[in-house]
Amino acid sequence: MKTASLIAAVATSACLCAHADKTEYAFRWNPENGGPATAEEAARILGINDDKAKKIEVRYLTVKQPAGLPNGNYQAVARERVDKDGPESMYKVRGPDSKAGRTVLSMWVCPLSGPALETKFEVDVNWALGEKTRSGDPNELPTPRTAISFSCSVGTSANAAFPKATEMSPRSCVNHVRRLKSDDWKIEEWVLPTSALIVEVSYAVDEGSPSHQKAFQASVDTLLKAGAQPLPDSKTLLGSTCPG
Question: Are 196 and 111 in contact (CB under 8 A)?
């Protein structure tokens, strides 16, 4: 549990997330291009205790973009997730981390109907290709990009959860997910609609700090040394792109 211990041991200094409820750090790669081939292998390399994998089906949904979003690249996304416990529907508004974005999203109201499961105002820190690297070498780890999001989840199907005003319609393809979870760590394998496989490691904390980010950076560096290459696209884009 060397990586988990490292994260747990760091001191919380200047908060990255200000008024956000959570900060989540994430890194994803395609094993076909290198890196750990499975969630279990990634957990072993990082020293994370893994549990029995949970199987999930994830379908992304098309929804009408709401009025009142801040200027910039803000977007509403939605999905339906089904596992052995039944369906879960999620609605998220996400965009670049900014003062205007935080103000608007911190006051957002969940549009979904059904048994409430979770509501989060969260900072997302993701390592991906296409960003300026720390040393200027394009082969090194990109500087992590930061976004802010509001999301809510309810324990019912998308047809029951989304009001007509959202103009929700399911996409035609499904993602098959295997998830390992250990405390605040998640390691997931996603078989995309294109049949490609991606693996994602993420860690969530109540109050993110530069120290937490530095510690997760060490995990990313470990995965890079194992051959993982960061992907250029978001999981939402990858998982919502249906072939044909």
Answer: no
